[in-house]
Amino acid sequence: MRSGLWLSLMMLVGLAMGGCAGRQDLETPDYEAIYDLPLEEMWPSVREYFTDANLPYREDRGSLVLETDWKQEFGGSKIAGYWHRYMVIGKRETPTKSKLWIIRITKSVNKALAAPGRQLDWGTNRGLGGDPSQRDQFSLGNGDYSISVEDEGDRLAFPVGENAFYVDSGQGTRDLTMEWRVFRGIMPKLAKKQQQVSAAQQVAKAPGAKDAPTFTECGQSILGLKKQAKAGGVVLLGELHGTQEVPRFIAQSVCQLVTSGIPVTVGLELPVENEERITAFLQSQGGEVDWLKLMEAPFWRSPYPDGRGSEAVANMLEQLRQLRAQGLDVAVFVYDHPKLSGQPREDALTQTVLAQVKAKPQRFHLVVSGNVHSRTAKGLPWDKQYRPMGYQLKDQLDDVTALDMAYDSGTAWICAADAQGRKLDCGVKEAKGKDNGDRFFVHAWGSANKEGYHGVFYVGHVSASEPAILKGLGNPDAAHAPESAPGL
């Protein structure tokens, strides 16, 4: 046990030294949390915190290091395939003071995170048998594995099934946000105050909810998000429909905001006729019948599925339902008027969103749409008098921020005119972007650009999400439809 933990520790300590102190959320100080207690006196409260947070762990008691079990990142979605664990290292600052280093270890099916040189063969006796040229494979017949002896123990503890992954995808970073979360969680029990940082943990509890969780795992913190979120504020997200990443960004944003005390309402560019179905689903138990009632609406079966009815959107609704089920203050409304077009449609979108915002001015509204509607500047290249929804909202509300989508190249499910320009062709298409890393972030500029955007929200490499109706009615627990399903 001890040797396994310390092997992982030595592999990650170099990453920890780099830290990320200068890139934290607004509520996370850019310095370490120091406990005014000897390490041995503080450590039992650390154990208690992870136990109460339902994060099972194993511990090397001799060195005050613990490592949590693998856990799927926020939400029950099968589309992301991200898992993580925490390594918690107790450190002595002085004989009477202590601190924690918490390393967040993330793995996924994506081998882009693999360490450079991972594919090299380091010696004839290092692996567990088999041909080194087949390093990414193993034989069920003779039990030969292409990984090293040191990694074998951890491999057996990995999740199995659709989201199974191997050692190639490992990545570890120091998580200062989690360090402060633990600090704030255990300091009230230690009856201490530290550097005038509030120890209270607040969440946005839904009206009428009996309880709300003191700890919810929401994935890696989105840089710059909380600076834009405030009661009464509206953030418009102008997206490219049909990706897996934007719905995940929305669900992760909501999770992080409500667990920090900000009630959130999400506006989705779905037909207003779906309002009752979506509300009923969010208040349901998420069973098979609940899914069928949600998905029987004609919208999900459109002959031209443009990405708004994707599997990723269905899974996002499930993630928001899970947050509500925990007692967190999450609400959703829809505002599209598909029977209208042009300026009349834009006006109708505006009035629906405006009514929602004015009815609940104490909430933060996150409104998602195609990136024409979210512009806050008047005019389009083909119509100089066009007044987008964002332009009209900016004129009638005090706090409106428009963010354009930024992403690394990849794919998206897009509907576009065919070569003859006679009909829409919907399917997986290439999306060109710019690589700014793999971490979600929000970046605001000093002033709006000519389209009226005040900044960007970045979602990393994008990958297409197919229509939910082709994926077992969007139910994450249902078997996926075969590739040759009718309608493809």
UniProtKB/TrEMBL annotation:
Top-level division of the source organism's lineage: Bacteria
PROSITE patterns registered for this protein in UniProt: PROKAR_LIPOPROTEIN (PS51257)
Keywords: Signal
Signal sequence segment: 1-18
Residue span of region Disordered: 121-142
Protein name: Haem-binding uptake Tiki superfamily ChaN domain-containing protein
